[in-house]
Amino acid sequence: MRLPVVHDLRCSSCNAPVDLAASRLQTCRFCGAALVVKEMGPPKGTERVAHAVVLTQCGPSNAPRVAKLLVAQGVKAEQAEQLVRSAPCEVAVLEERDQAWTIQRALEAAGAQARLEERVQIVPAQVTVRVVLDDAGPDTVAVMRAVRTFVEHLGMSECKALVASAPCTVVDAIEEPKGRALCAALLSAGARARVL
Q: Which residues contact 45 (CB under 8 A, 6 or more apart)?
């Protein structure tokens, strides 16, 4: 994975050019602002934003209306009553901000107090591996079956040519669990294979 290359570093206060020096703490020579230069590493995953609707307060006179509204949103009746009694609590987590905002406004219209919170989750990036076939072994037909089970786009002739050309790379980038399963299938078919 290639990291971004910085060609031009600018002051966040006055947008003047700043010299890229070895130290992490820089001072803008034009406005004197203190700047911290952070090193960017490879991304650890993908950010996913979820929007939580939090019921902050609900009076006893409004509790039946709010519980009925939560039931209309798909919450079970006894769970809705429990949520209303245990305010402040989270009543819904949605990926779409507009849907969460609609629920918040409906709760407020029913007489409750609610707020919208953003939750950022880092979804780990999928690790890909390479599967290498070192030797096909005595039963090349079983090895071909194992390869075709995991690599759908190969025809029979391409699979035969691949197995015959061992040592070779069977799959260059496959998700780690599938790659380990392919390697195990190749080993059980009598081949010598490894995961890189």
A: 122, 123, 124, 125
Closest CA to 50 of 100, 90, 87: 100
3-state helix, strand, coil in the chain (%, to 5): 35, 30, 35
Question: What does residue 195 show for φ and ψ, rounded to 5 degrees?
Answer: -110, 130
Q: Can you give the pTM of this predicted structure?
A: 0.46
Residue ranges and CATH numbers for the domains of the chain are 47-123 (3.30.1390.10), 128-195 (3.30.1390.10)
Q: For 94, which DSSP code?
A: E
Buried/exposed code over 62-101 (b: 16+ C-beta within 10 A; e: otherwise): bbebbbebbeebebeeeebbebbeebeeebbebeeeeebe
> Would you list the DSSP string of 74-143?
T--HHHHHHHHHT-SEEEEEES-HHHHHHHHHHHHHTT-EEEEEEEEEEEEPPPEEEEEEEE--S-HHHH
CB-CB contact of 27 with 34 (8 Å): yes
The pLDDT tens digits of the residues spanning 20-75 come to: 665 667 777 887 777 766 665 555 667 778 888 989 898 888 899 989 988 988 88
